[in-house]
Design brief:
Layout: E1 2-5, H1 10-16, E2 29-30, E3 33-37, E4 61-66, H2 69-72, H3 107-125, H4 132-135, H5 146-162, H6 172-186, H7 194-221, H8 226-251, H9 256-273, H10 279-300, H11 312-326, H12 331-346, H13 350-367, H14 373-385, E5 388-393, E6 398-407, E7 412-417, E8 429-434, E9 438-440, E10 445-448, E11 461-467, E12 485-490, E13 498-501, E14 505-507
Antiparallel strand pairs: 1-4, 2-3, 3-4, 5-6, 5-9, 6-7, 7-8, 10-11, 10-14, 11-12, 12-13
Helix pairs in contact: 3-5, 5-6, 6-7, 6-8, 7-8, 8-9, 9-10, 10-11, 11-12, 12-13, 12-14, 13-14
Length: about 525
């Protein structure tokens, strides 16, 4: 430890040492040093480097201690700054996207912080703003996950019930806040856990009660005018969001009764969403229809088929809006980007989907972390998008296969299959096939080669959007072997789609860099 009597320049002292740290109880860290003011500043508030006072109490004596690397690596609660468990023995937690030793906190401290900040936001900005501290980490600006998100969601409901609900003139927007808090906790519950299942039933009952209060208040206090219409629209949104959340909860119950209730509430949400004309509502409506179709399949025991694809234009608008509002590093932007990639793949625009997913994964790994749910979701879907599916057209071997690579300078294509629905990879085999018999299936990225007339298209890459697929006339499984051409849409938008012979196409396993394409 080194004790130094330092005489500093006034510009530094005035901004750094006076008067915040004069008590000496807490001290800041600068680089690898820690500083603590041991004495008091000169009572005459003169510039310290000119101070002639000889009393030790009037000198700024600074203690500098080297902070070892080991000390810096020990995490501490960013709220109370204490290391180790809290008074109740609960250890530090971190379920956000903070890195290194940052972002750790005691759960009890997080709750106190969220409550305090929530009250400030409530007074300053109104009910709609005060839930954010319970949902988003103030340091990394990302959503809390896992157990922390569940604990803070529970605390948020208690915060609304015990604090804000006691206020006089509990207005319509307070009811909206309460409904949001209830559904936020509901969707995080585990429907297969008996205690959480019971808690879910309690939250649903409270939500239904809140809806009744909102409707009564509309009838009693808002009889006509534009304000009434805006509040009716808000009520419709709350009912749509609430029923969607209830459906998600019942779906996790994992029983026939749960699936029936989930389907019922998804259908209610769908009906409300039809009256909401926003991009988010259009996208959610498509998700509700997909959920309903999947539940109908599960209840009937029939194979599930997506009845309608996500609309690319709707997904693009939603993604652009998330980028504008939250930035590309946000969970919302990454999640909406994955939805856009799914919509692109549904339209056989695989190259666009793959490039977007690669970008999203890089951002998610850097911002949210490799183990974050959003990162894993994007990586999982990228693996699906990178499957290159082909048809083999010779009589001896025919069907769908997953192409893996070319060998012997493209003479053979190693495939895995044949693929059946539902797919069972364990029963598939890998073997080489003559490349001349390979036909890229719709959605497969390809590169043109060997074209004699349209030579400018050689080495151009694109997606197969259509092929002439015909089932065998005798009714047996498989395809007619006389497929000849594929419709290719090129990544270079200045090139028009063309029909290309399958023998002039090669499956593109690895996309070139976008700048080189």
């Amino acid at each position: 430890m080194i004790i130094v009597d330092i005489l500093l320049r006034p510009s530094v002292v005035a901004l750094v040492l006076w008067p915040t740290w004069a008590s000496g109880d807490e001290y800041p860290s600068i680089g690898s040093f820690r500083l603590r003011v041991l004495g008091q500043t000169c009572m005459q508030k003169c510039y310290i480097h000119r101070c002639r006072c000889r009393c030790a109490a009037n000198k700024n004596i600074i203690e500098l201690t080297m902070s070892s690397k080991k000390e810096e690596d020990v995490p501490s609660c960013w709220v109370c700054l204490e290391e180790g468990p809290d008074e109740g023995g609960v250890p530090l937690v971190r379920d956000c996207s903070c890195r290194g030793t940052s972002g750790f906190a005691h759960l009890s401290c997080l709750v106190k912080y969220a409550e305090g900040t929530g009250k400030q936001l409530y007074e300053r900005e109104g009910p709609s703003a005060c839930m954010e501290p319970f949902i988003v980490c103030p340091n990394c600006k990302q959503f809390y996950d896992n157990d922390v998100s569940k604990a803070l969601a529970k605390a948020c409901v208690e915060f609304v019930e015990e604090g804000l609900k006691d206020k006089e003139n509990f207005c319509f927007l307070h009811h909206v806040l309460y409904a949001d808090a209830l559904t936020n906790q509901l969707v995080l519950l585990d429907g297969e856990n008996e205690s959480e299942k019971a808690k879910g039933g309690e939250l649903i009952a409270k939500f239904i009660s809140v809806l009744g209060d909102m409707k009564s208040q509309l009838e009693l206090e808002y009889h006509e005018g534009m304000l009434r219409q805006r509040l009716l629209d808000k009520l419709t949104f709350v009912e749509a969001d609430g029923n969607a959340s209830i459906g998600c909860f019942y779906r996790k119950v994992n029983s026939e009764e749960g699936r029936l209730k989930a389907k019922e509430h998804f259908e209610k949400a769908r009906d409300f969403l039809k009256n909401i004309h926003t991009t988010e509502a259009e996208l959610t409506l498509a998700r509700m229809n997909e959920n309903i179709s999947e539940l109908e399949s599960e209840l009937s025991g029939k194979e599930f088929h997506i009845s309608e694809s996500l609309d690319v234009n709707v997904c693009q608008k939603f993604y652009d809006k998330c980028l504008e509002m939250h930035g590309q590093n946000s969970y919302m932007a990454i999640h909406s980007g994955v939805l856009l990639a799914k919509a692109l793949r549904d339209e056989r625009r695989t190259i666009e989907a793959e490039r977007l997913l690669c970008k999203l994964i890089d951002i998610s790994r850097l911002t949210l972390g490799h183990d974050h749910l959003s990162t894993k979701e994007a990586e999982s879907f990228l693996a699906i998008v990178r499957e290159r599916r082909v048809i083999y057209r010779f009589e001896t071997v025919s069907g769908w296969f997953q192409a893996l690579r070319y060998e012997n300078e493209g003479e053979f294509c190693v495939v895995q299959g044949p693929m059946v629905v539902p797919r069972n990879i364990d029963e598939e085999e890998q073997f080489p096939l003559d490349s001349a018999g390979i036909i890229p299936f719709v959605g497969t990225p390809v590169v043109c080669h060997g074209l004699q007339k349209a030579t400018h298209l050689n080495d151009m890459i694109g997606d197969v959007r259509d092929i002439d697929v015909k089932e065998k006339e005798d009714g047996s499984e498989g395809f007619d072997v006389n497929i000849d051409r594929c419709v290719v849409h090129f990544e270079d938008k200045s090139l028009k789609p063309v029909n290309v012979k399958a023998t002039n196409l090669r499956v593109l396993f690895d996309l070139p860099n976008a700048d080189d394409a």
